[in-house]
Design brief:
Length: 249
């Protein structure tokens, strides 16, 4: 999603809402109908990844493992000369794929598309750095959270209208994108607010401050019940040329 800039601010501040990126915690029930569902996923860390035995040799490719109870997932890599090959049959717990790109391991950035009948398609980024294996947990929700009765996208407008560019950051010409993690809880209030990627202490603090002030949301729903859902929310601090110091120390 492209950033939106709000030119009424003296120091232009843009806020962008990312799509729900993490597993809705505490949700295990399964719906009888799969109409109108939304995929949600969470990247697992090393401590959370169950042991994966007997993975075939990768021949220089990357491995993608998707843990999910959703049967019948279709997975493909977007882009020319990129492919997804099933390495193991779905066992009711996980899908195991090999990702290839011209046979060159150096090309480690992928866009993966999930699809299934009755579900909204979802694209997500997979990045391989030092490891050749990435693991995700995938679930679904029936309704996404709503902010002040509107879609989650309206939250970016509320953030942009309430953010204040820190004076110290203005003085030294500090700019950048602060990435915030937060959850919309089952009661609609935001929790688990943390800085996933910081820029400078004052910019980070301002991003956390405004997210913490959020009014109550309408929580996500799964099988008619509210569930906790995590978001990543990039807040972009950008100075107009007229507000840049003549020399940044």
């Amino acid at each position: 999603m492209k950033p939106r800039f709000f030119n009424s601010l003296t120091a232009v501040v843009a806020a962008v809402v990312a799509t729900a990126a993490f597993f809705p915690a505490g949700s295990e029930a399964r719906a009888n109908s799969d109409e109108g569902k939304h995929f949600v996923l969470r990247l697992l860390n090393e401590e959370e990844v169950p042991g994966i035995d007997d993975l075939p040799e990768m021949d220089g490719a990357f491995a993608l493992v998707l843990y999910s109870e959703i049967d019948g997932l279709e997975v493909k890599a977007l882009g020319k000369r990129r492919s997804v090959r099933e390495m193991q049959p779905y066992d009711g717990e996980k899908y195991v794929f090999a990702l290839a790109s011209d046979g060159k391991r150096a090309k480690s950035e992928y866009v993966i598309r999930l699809s299934r009948n009755g579900y909204e398609e979802k694209d997500f980024d997979v990045s391989f750095r030092e490891d050749s294996l990435q693991t995700f947990e995938i679930d679904y929700i029936d309704e996404l959270p709503r902010f002040l009765g509107e879609s989650a996208d309206s939250f970016k407008e509320w953030v942009s209208s309430n953010l204040k560019y820190p004076e110290g950051a203005l003085g030294r010409g500090a700019e950048g994108t602060v990435v915030i993690n937060f959850a919309v809880g089952e009661n609609g209030y935001l929790t688990d607010i943390t800085v996933a990627k910081g820029v400078a202490p004052d910019l980070d603090a301002e991003a956390v401050r405004i997210i913490s002030m959020s009014p109550k949301w309408t929580p996500a729903l799964k099988d008619g019940n509210p569930v906790k859902l995590y978001f990543q929310f990039p807040v972009i601090f950008l100075l107009r040329d007229s507000k840049r110091p003549s020399q940044v120390l």
